[in-house]
Amino acid sequence: MELTQEYLARLDAVQPKELPGDLDLFDEATATRGIRLNKAAYSLKDEHQRDLFAKDEEAWMAQFGLTDEEQDLVRGRDWIGLWRSGMSIYVMVKLSGVTDTPLPEIGKQMKESGGGANG
Amino acid sequence: MARVVGGIGASHAPSMEHIYDAGEEVRESDEWQPLFGPFKQVADWLEELKPDRLVVVYNDHMDQFFLDAYPTFALGVAETYPVADEGFGARPFPPLPGDAKLGWHIARSLVADEFDITICQDLEVDHGVISPLPMVDFSEGEGGWKIPIVPLAVNVILHPLPSPLRCWKLGRALRRAIYSFEDDLRVVVVGTGGLSHQLTGPRFGQVTPDWDQEFMRLLAEEPESLTRYTYKQLIELGGTESVEVVNWLAMRGALPDDARPLVTAYYAHRIMGYGLQTFEVAA
Ligand SMILES: [Fe+2]
User: Fold this and answer.
1) Rounded distance, CA B173 to CA A66, Å?
2) Are B94 and B144 in contact (CB under 8 A)?
3) Is 0.80 topped by the overall pTM?
4) Which of A42, A58, A113, B218 could form a disulfide with A80 if both were Cys (CB 3.0 to 4.6 A apart)?
5) Band of pLDDT at residue A116, cut at 50, 70 and 90
6) pLDDT tens track of chain B, all 283 residues?
7) In the 8-state DSSP scheme, what is residue A43?
8) How far does B230 lie from chain A, in Å, by closest CA?
C-alpha cells in the first residue's frame, strides 16, 4: 500500500495541532476526557432533569457515573475545572442555566484561568 | 426546475434571541440598531424577492445532536421543525414549516454526489437556525413563519471537522440538488454562524473585526481562496467557535461565482463579531 504525499498532507491537516496555549478545541482528547460530564450536562436539555437537579442535585449526578473528582467539580461550580476535565462549552451553558451562573461570570474565570485545557 | 435566487450569511447567537425577544424598542436602541437595522434591510429585500424556500446551512450546539452519534452533515426531510429546548425552555415560536419533498430530493442528490448525509425525519432546530431567522422570516402580527425551510447541519464543534474545501463543495452539490428539483421553486440559501468569537480559555470574549471584515470581503470577491485556510488558521484568526464560518462558505458555494454582495453589515459588540451579508443572483 503506497500512501501518497498528497494523502499524508491531507491527513496531517485534518487535526489542528500546536495551537497557542491560550486556544483550545474540542477533539479526541477532550471528548474522551469529558464523556461523563458532557452526558450529565447535556441531560439538562430535558426539563425533568432540570427539575431533578433543582430538587436533589446528588440524585441527578448519580445517574451519570461521574468520578468523585467530577462530582466535586459540579458541586463546587468549578467552571475551569469542568472545562479542563473536558466539558464542552455548549453543555456547560446548560449547567450554567440551572445554577444561575451568568456567562460573563464563567468568562471572567476563563480569562483568569491561564488556559490548560489542551491535550 | 428550482433555482437559487439569492444568498444570506448571518451570525447566530443566543444574544440575538434575547434582544429580539425583548421587543422592538430594545432592537431599535442605539446599542442594537447596528445589528437589527441591517436585518430589517434584509427582511425588506426578501419581501421583494419572494423566495419559496430557504435552505439553511447551520450548526447545532448539542441541542439536537450529541456526542453519542455526532453527524458530520445532517439534512432535514421533515414537514416541520420544532424549536429546541437548549436548557432554558424553548422559545415560544411555532414549529418552522419544512418541505419534505425538497428535503428528500436534496438527500438523494447529495448522496449521488458522494455527500453521505445523515437523513433526519425528526429535527429540532436550535439558535443556529432560530436566532437569525425571525428577523427575516417571521411576521409578528400574523404570528407566523413565512417561508418553509430545509435545514442542513454541519459539524463544526467536534474535531475532525469537514474541511473548508469540503464545505465549499457541499455548497456546490447543494446547488446541483436545487437545480435538479422538478418543482418551480425560487430558493435562497442561508449560512449561519460566526463571525469571530471565543468562549473558552484566556481569550474568552475576544473579537477580531479586521479578520471578520476580510472574511466577508473574500467571501464576496474570491470565495474559493477561503477553501485554502486550515482550521488552525481559522481558530487563530477568529477564535475556537468562529469556525462556524464554513457554513457561510457552503452557502457561497451554492451561489454562482458572479453573485454580488448587496447588504454587508458588521458590528463587533461585547463578545461577538456580528456579520450579515446578502448576495444577489442575476436572473
Ligand atoms: Fe454557534
Assistant:
1) 43
2) yes
3) yes
4) A113
5) confident
6) 999 999 999 999 999 999 999 999 999 999 999 999 999 999 999 999 999 999 999 999 999 999 999 999 999 999 999 999 999 999 999 999 999 999 999 999 999 999 999 999 999 999 999 999 999 999 887 779 999 999 999 999 999 999 999 999 999 999 999 999 999 999 999 999 999 999 999 999 999 999 999 999 999 999 999 999 999 999 999 999 999 999 999 999 999 999 999 999 999 999 999 999 999 998 7
7) G
8) 7
Is A82 in contact with A37 (CB distance < 8 Å)? Answer: yes
| Rounded CA separation B250/B231 (Å) | 15
- Rg of chain B on CA atoms, in Å: 17
CB-hemisphere CA count at 13 Å for A110? 23
Q: Cβ–Cβ of B86/A94 closer than 8 Å?
A: yes
Q: Which residues of B form the catalytic set?
A: 127, 197
Instruction: Find the distance separating the first CA and the last CA of chain B, reported in whole Å.
Output: 14
List chain A residues with CB under 8 Å of B202.
22, 110-115
Q: Which residue has the cell 466577508?
A: B216
The answer, yes or no, to whether residue A119 has pLDDT greater than 70, is: no
Residues in A touching B159 (Cβ below 8 Å): 15-16, 25-28
Work out the end-to-end distance of chain A between its first and last CA atoms, rounded to an integer number of angstroms. Answer: 31
Pick from B186, B179, B176: nearest CA to B110: B176
pLDDT of residue B283: 78
Please give the Cα distance from B77 to B151 (Å, whole number): 8
Partners of residue A94 in chain B, C-beta under 8 Å: 86-87
Sign of the Cα pseudo-torsion (B113, B115, B120, B123, in order): negative
What SS3 class is residue A19?
A: coil
Q: Give the residue from A84, A105, A108, A98 showing the smallest Cα distance to A40.
A: A98
Residues 6+ apart with CB under 8 A from B140: none
DSSP string covering A63-96, please? GGT--HHHHHHHHTT-HHHHHHTT--HHHHHHHH
Contact A111 B202 (CB under 8 A): yes
- Residue in A closest to B235 by C-alpha: A23
A99 touching B, CB under 8 A?
no
